[in-house]
Predict the 3D structure of the following.
Amino acid sequence: MQEHLGLNRDEMVARYWRISGQIVQMKTVDGHCTFFRNGCSVHPGRPWRCAQWPLVPAILESKENFEIIKDSCPGIPTDVTYAEFVEALKNYLAEKFDEEDFLRSLE
Ligand code: SF4
């Protein structure tokens, strides 16, 4: 994102980021991400967490997370079950990340 916007870390913090401990979040405007303008205005440089959506590990933690994300994401088929999605997501994450790191992340 910094490279995409041509800004250094301090400029990102001053303009766009809200940092709490190890967590970096986008500042919000009118209740949504400051970069949202009829879609993501920094799409090619969006954060990895945004690029991961809706395949987020939080879905593995609870069915409730899955239902919330499913309701907000038109890309998830309405008839897919939680068990089916969890299996597909685990396979996807295992392919993307080192298997040991992945398994540790589920502990
Ligand atoms: S994809 Fe990420 S950076 Fe882009 S508008 Fe949405 S929350 Fe913001």
About this structure: The chain has a mean pLDDT of 87. DSSP finds seven helices and four strands in the chain.
